[in-house]
Write a structure and sequence with these properties.
alpha/beta, Rossmann fold, seven-stranded mixed beta sheet, binds S-adenosyl-L-homocysteine
């Protein structure tokens, strides 16, 4: 008899074939990915299990997308999050990345411009019982002063340049991962704030993200 595919098998296959095989080695990141069912974050994901576990970005409504799993894993690995990190995410979208951050960091603050997406993400995050993740509606290009500074900042939308408020809100020795470009043809950058307030910017890989809106976006 044919066995119905379950999400755990599909997720395991995704992780083996597209995450580990493509060079992601951070065990904490891989473990976190095994624990968060991606289909929950995709509209009609329950009915489209196969699609949810392909290594592709997918539409989540409001012209936005959930990022490609490999890219999510790559960004989280480069962020080098520790259990005591306080993290800020710009672009909650579906809430998938924020949920992974919730397993990796101590406190997570994530901000989204589209209120409907923020609310949907918040619901899923609550259902997953991730109590250390807080969702905000607003322009994340302005940062989130209330809880600053942050040890780690991750943007999942592309900005024309590194928004000043984000640089200010990054802790000493903090790391920020952010796509810079016009949106769609971008360069993923790693920004490190050294103890003497020296800023180091490293080009990682080409990537394609939706544009960051707002004051320091497009
Ligand atoms: N991290 C998301 C991917 C989201 S796509 C996930 O795991 O699903 C990028 C998101 O950034 C979109 O939802 C978009 O609405 C949001 N966005 C764009 N500009 C923004 C801004 N200035 N502040 C906060 N969110 C923004």
């Amino acid at each position: 008899m044919e066995r119905k595919e379950n999400w755990r098998d599909l997720l395991d296959r995704l992780i083996e074939q597209h995450i580990v095989k493509e060079g992601i080695s951070d065990k904490r990141v891989i473990e976190a990915m095994r624990k968060i069912p991606r289909h929950l974050f995709i509209p009609n994901g329950e009915k489209n299990l196969r699609l949810a576990y392909q290594d592709r970005p997918l539409p989540i409504g409001y012209g936005q997308t959930i990022s490609q799993p490999y890219m999510v894993a790559y960004m989280l690995q480069e962020l080098n999050i520790t259990k005591d990190s306080r993290a800020l995410e710009i672009g909650t979208g579906s809430g998938y990345n924020a949920s992974l951050l919730g397993l990796l960091a101590k406190e997570v603050y994530t901000i989204e411009t589209v209120p409907e997406l923020a609310r949907r993400a918040e619901r899923i995050i609550k259902a997953l019982n991730l109590k250390n993740v807080k969702v905000f509606v607003g322009d994340g290009s302005l940062g989130l002063e209330q809880y600053a500074p942050y040890d780690r900042i991750i943007a999942t939308c592309a900005a024309p340049s590194i928004p000043d408020p984000l640089l200010k809100e990054l802790s000493e020795d903090g790391i920020m991962i952010i796509p810079i470009g016009h949106g769609y043809f971008d360069m993923l950058k790693k920004v490190v704030k050294h103890s003497n307030d020296d800023i180091e910017v490293i080009d990682l890989i080409p990537c394609s993200f939706v544009p960051m809106k707002g004051k320091f976006g497009y």
